[in-house]
Amino acid sequence: MPxxxxxxxxxxxRSKATxxxxxxxxxxxxxxATGFGIYNFGINALILILVCIASTVLTELLFELLLKKxxxxxxxxxxxxxxxxxxxxxxxxxxxIAVIGGVFAILVVKMLFGGIGQNFMNPALGARCFLILSxxxxxxxxxxxxxxxxxxxxxxxxxxxxxxxxxxxxxxxTSGTIGETSMIAIIAGACFLILIGVIDLRIPGSYIVSFVIxxxxxxxxxxxxxxxxxxxxxGGLMLGAFFMATDYSTRPIxxxxxxxxxxxxxxxxxIFRIFGPSxxxxxYAIIIGNLIVPLIEKITYPKAFGEGGERI
Amino acid sequence: xxxxxxxxxxxxxxxxxxxxxxxxxxxxxKGDLVFPMSQHIGAPAKPVVSKGDHVLRGQRIAEAGGFVSxxxxxxxxxxxxxxxxxxxxxxxxxxxIIIENDDKYEEVDYPASVPLEDxxxxxxxxxxxxGGVVGMGGAGFPxxxxxxxxxxxxxxxxxxxxxxxxxxxxxxxxxxxEEPEKIISGLKCMLxxxxxxxxxxxxxxxxxxxIKLIKSLIKDDPRIYVKPLKTKYPQGAERQLIYATTGRAIxxxxxxxxxxxxxxxxxxVVAIHNAVINRQxxxxxxxxxxxxAIAEPCNFKVHIGxxxxxxxxxxxxxxxxxxxxxxxxPMMGFGIFELDVPTxxxxxxxxxxxxxxVSAMEPSACINCGRCVEVCPGRxxxxxxxxxxxxxxxxRFVELGGMECCECGCxxxxxxxxxxLTQSIKSMRKIxxxxxxxx
Lengths: 312, 439
Fold this sequence. Notes:
By secondary structure, chain A is an all-alpha fold. Chain A has 2 domains: 19-143 and 177-197, no CATH class; 199-299, no CATH class. Chain A has helices spanning 19-41, 43-66, 77-87, 95-110, 123-134, 136-139, 154-159, 166-171, 183-195, 202-218, 225-233, 237-244, 255-275, 282-291, 293-299.
């Protein structure tokens, strides 16, 4: 008979999934897009991504050391933030932009609000929008990738009324931020996350569908296949819908609320892209969406099982 | 094959392979037997024997302390050694009768049995009451109370719960495989009480042999059906089972009878059969002794009151040092800190594990992933409820449906941050229920 037994409240077994595994899975899912970005834009893309990751992880570590809090960098969440931020920078940006972005993302957006799970806004997108507003020129200076568009993103071309090469947009051989250009690479990673159950299609699905419906009604092109395809493949829509709108901390936790959130993002993205001055709108749509999450959760709180004693 | 189910739930490692092929063996106790006066929900039973009395097997040693209560019978012959508080699986000290076993198993003369057709409804309920039958799935609700709903003619279904969704447990499985006729007979006793009712035997589809066997035995009975359930935890939770088999959803403040259902666990139905047909009180139950620390996992037919220590020895002892010992299944059982406790009417298993998942993983901050919401069969939001509980916010806890939690443990199981969600919610529910009682 053993001397001492462990005693605890039920349940006595736990699933194998951990926070670090989930975050590591997201990093793995982002590798195709990262790899393609580096191939497409060259060595500076790799440097920027590494600087981003280093600055997010170091910021979290230093913050926790200074405030004598438990060290949480082992959960890889800061790595995900750094990687996403890197993928959201133009490859021409200088290294210090990556540092400023990384520090802002972790310090201001994440840690000051209580760390993992407590931030109300996606840290990578919060930092990106901060950088766009503060260093507009640097952040909108996209490199020429030899597709004959001399550094203009496909969405900017469409906005200017020019035609674009859809095939190049799907494979990713266009200009844009480091990680957003290749639809194929992003979807491959997203499929991996959906298969292992880290994300589901509720938000990306309702986001993309409502965005398409918005384009059909307000796009001014009617049912124009190439136009819609270009809008889907162009800009940050795919990266945003699958990797940023699905961020656990900043999306509603209720099932029905997730559909509402996706629809809201679709409409906001449509408004920004069609009626706004800029060609892109995903980042702003998502961070504004993040802000209304508490309201969405409030109105979509589920009915408990058997509430009202209904006979089904 | 149509499979009936509910939304939510989990698929934990089921560990049933350890003991599912081990036939039930009767275990005769060697040491003293301990009979706690509270083995059921409701008023504790009152001892009717005193120290030094000689008792027989099947003799009543304590009588029900009220309407919602149950008699307790000695399961051996011997001498009452003491009546004193003893530790039970939950860790509580409960007034208990201790009987020294004389190894003779002399039995009382049971009343002559009467064919079911000749019994009135009152007779049947009375037999169940006299037999000290309680819900043996875990809750221990006195069965005669369950069988006496306010409006008996509104009962449409009598459901036998053979889901056995808890991992590791195989006691119901062996019972269904080895003594199915007793289950069917017990169900017929229940159906005799409710003229309109149909009988459902609900079995998870990981027990295909049981489904086949029982289907073949009831094929000529127009009132009884077998419903295969999808294998998923907590398929056997009363409210989820009623929903899966009948499509009726009840909330925590309703009784199954409010939805026209009576649900009883496999062992309970066998106890009803014994009490009504054989006029024998509840004295035995099947206990699975299993886990990776046990040398030879077994399914024992146990004389209620037998010490857990003896069961471990009978199962070959420990082949490895256990780190955690659980009375019941790993999802809803009680972690115990000593083996020197008695089996009771509600003890379904003794699980000895060499690894403890709970202490192996440190809880970290919630990442809002929503897995707890996905799996919650009560369709509430464990994450938010646990937050309310941690801040002692009773009002919001109740507002968010905290009282609808059935404490099944799915949320804690899936949580990647390893937060003790069920524990927080459970504690808060206890506080809230205590507050309500005060008012």
